[in-house]
Amino acid sequence: MKHILFITSTNLASNPRCRKExxxxxxxxxxxxxxxxxxxxxxxxxxxxxxxxxPAVTFYxxxxxxxxxxxxxxxxxxxxxxxxxxxxxxxxxxxxGIGVNRxxxxxxxxxxxxxxxxxxxxAHNPGAFWPAIYLANKKIPIGIDVEDYHxxxxxxxxxxxxxxxxxxxxxxxxxYVSFASGPIMDETVSLLKSSNGVTxxxxxxxxxxRDFPSPAEQVNDGPLRIVWFSQNIDAGRGxxxxxxxxxxxxxxxxxxxxxxxxTAFCEQFVAPRKHIKLVNSMSQAELNSxxxxxxxxxxxxxxxxxxxxxxxxxxxxxxxxxxxxxxxxETIAQxxxxxxxxxxGTLIDLKMENLExxxxxxxxxxxxxxxxxxxxxxxxxxxSWEHENQKLRLAWSKMA
Length: 400
What we know:
Elements: E1 3-8, H1 16-27, E2 31-38, H2 43-53, E3 58-63, H3 69-87, H4 93-100, H5 103-114, E4 120-124, H6 129-136, E5 142-146, H7 157-170, E6 176-179, H8 182-189, E7 199-202, E8 224-233, H9 239-246, E9 253-261, H10 263-269, E10 276-279, H11 284-290, E11 296-299, H12 306-310, H13 314-322, E12 325-329, H14 332-340, E13 345-348, H15 355-364, H16 366-371, H17 373-380, H18 385-399
Parallel strand pairs: 1-2, 1-4, 2-3, 4-5, 5-6, 6-7, 8-9, 8-11, 9-10, 11-12, 12-13
């Protein structure tokens, strides 16, 4: 039985792409191990549930934050030292790997102490890239998943350049590299001087078909039901711009926000709006299933940085598979998606200026909007995790 080791600098609760790959590996008969982090936040309770549901997996958890003060202090020291070394021109794989994410040094330490020798290693998140290169140098084939365009997430030019250099070193060492969207793949591959024969492909953030019940029995009366979700309900996600516009339609719409409520943000923007319902964060499966309760999904990305314009969020994929109608801001990735599936949604500008006329139009046609839910759901059946994961299965079979 071939052994796949998955490495993430977060955990499976906050990294659904990694979790889906772990489950896929088990389903296809691989022995599976996971290196992840024990995080002292909302994810840990969900992580324990996931771990319990995966008894065949061997987990190696590393304490995150200050729960182990010694490890935290060690990782902070190495991170700051490596950032300083990069600033003075010492740009090795090690200084880049630790400099972009302090957890890389803790992962590397665990790999050496456990002397892990998998047949395949899959790295998720930049903190896992340098440890993956270490395994590749030991002749272990590696795969890398690029979920975000990480050079475009940071404002500091030195750190952005470090991310670019790390990608230039890590990606050619892999057997394959998967990307979370076509625009992220194009932007990232353009950084490489040579792909070194590495296979590149997109794995969209789609889920299993069974997660989305048929909307044939949905409710077809009452206000237009609008939903938005994220891990956190907080500032910087476009809600500040969109909520005042939705206020103009309170007699004809209902609004639900799902996620972990940021206290200060919700006190300022949500509490005064009695027409908004808050729902606590839930598992991805629960979230997917409850989407049948809503008509419209908001994929509101403010285009705050380069990554935000290139990434295709879990939101838009969830709404799509549920057969919901999508209102999406016109980022590069979302525009490409809606142009590919025009019956499934519409685009608004990043300033939200055409949101009001869009809602007026949809409210005027709410009956046909709801009647088309089943046909949208049926059309989305051909786009699912079952379809996407074939690319991974093929890549793994060639590596093992």
